[in-house]
Design brief:
The protein is built from 15 helices and 8 strands. The two termini are 38 Å apart. Helix 2 links the parallel strand 1 and strand 2. The chain is 41% helix and 14% strand. Helix 6 packs across helix 7, helix 6 packs across helix 15 and helix 9 crosses helix 10.
Length: 340
């Protein structure tokens, strides 16, 4: 099962992965990803090529601020984030540089990369609806918009408006439906919240199980992480909810991405591009799917066994850079609507 079919050229990637690189090459990465979700893959690349990988982790906002303060003297070659909105923010601040790579262009669909070459998606995630099967029949669910209907009053959990994933969801709605219709929907959603927004996506799952709400909106891989957790309590909690793909009769479920861009200050540009090319290779994409339960950006790479059990779904085809274009407007709209 593949999320998006895409024409790929395998030979170039095989040649890339098989080549050796001078041990003097270095790539310095500022990463907003959890270290455990990226470092094993970087270690594999470093061992194979001899490239030295230096990884600095932190929140995306802090890393972007650090790049601003360091300016052209920054040691960072790559900025890696878990949301397109912040990649767009870094681009707009002049912190990234445009790069050209046939391998990236051939293997990453156009909607999953910056139109001017400033960043590229590395893995995909969907913002989905989860629900309590003992209190909600799946036939009652349809779309994000339907969660603003009066029947869901006091039944919806979702994290705060300061969360970039929610901002990107609203940005996508503005891109599709316009500001007025989106603001009407957001006001309806706020009226239906079971409690003031609190915690992360895993906390929304726990809130459903605790009976605080009946439905929630989360990124799919948080549920996957709990279902495959080494902690029995996490698995038991996650097994009490179900996943629903929204908007399957419409434009499809909202898609976001982790991604990366070469920094404007990069001293090791070619090595940074080569690493990006590895990260979209079949090997790396399979690792993202199997380890993180994220969806590959490539259509020729299988999903994880858990994702296969969830089945195929229709994905929104909005170009991801639109999530950044409408981010500021989304934040203002959410503030006006009273989304805490």
């Amino acid at each position: 099962m593949r999320l998006i079919p895409v024409t790929v050229i395998i030979l170039a990637v095989v040649l890339l992965v098989g080549q050796t690189t001078s041990a003097a090459d270095v790539v310095n990465i500022y990463s907003a990803r959890n270290e455990a979700l990226i470092k094993p893959l970087l270690d594999r690349y470093a061992e194979r090529t001899g490239v030295e990988i230096n990884l600095v982790t932190g929140s995306a906002d802090a890393l972007i601020k650090r790049l601003e303060l360091e300016g052209i003297n920054s040691p960072a070659d790559l900025l890696l984030t878990v949301d397109v909105g912040r990649l767009f923010r870094a681009k707009s601040a002049g912190l990234l540089r445009a790069v050209s790579s046939d391998i990236l262009d051939q293997n990453v669909p156009e909607i999953y990369r910056d139109s001017a070459g400033y960043w590229v998606a590395l893995s995909l995630r969907s913002r989905v609806i989860i629900y309590a099967p003992d209190r909600v029949d799946e036939s009652e669910l349809s779309s994000y918009q339907a969660l603003a209907q009066p029947k869901w009053r006091g039944r919806v959990c979702i994290r705060s408006s300061s969360n970039i994933y929610n901002q990107s969801l609203i940005a996508a709605m503005i891109a599709h439906d316009g500001r007025e219709a989106t603001e009407t929907w957001v006001r309806g959603l706020v009226n239906n919240m079971a409690r003031p927004p609190a915690g992360g996506d895993r906390d929304q799952i726990k809130a459903i199980v605790a009976g605080q709400c009946d439905v929630a909106v989360i990124n799919h891989y948080y549920l996957a992480g709990m279902l495959t957790s080494g902690l029995a309590q996490d698995r038991e909690t996650a097994e009490q909810v179900r996943l629903f793909w929204p908007d399957q009769e419409g434009r499809g479920a909202h898609i976001n991405a982790s991604g990366a861009g070469v920094t404007r200050a990069a001293k090791n540009v070619e090595a940074a591009i080569a690493l990006l090319e590895f990260l979209v290779s079949p090997e790396a994409q399979s690792w993202y799917a199997d380890t993180n339960n994220e969806y590959p950006v490539r259509g020729d790479v299988d999903n994880s066994e858990l994702q296969k059990r969830w089945g195929d779904f229709k994905a929104d085809q909005l170009a991801l850079e639109q999530l950044g274009v409408f981010n500021a407007e989304a934040v203002r709209l959410m503030d006006r609507a009273g989304w805490k």
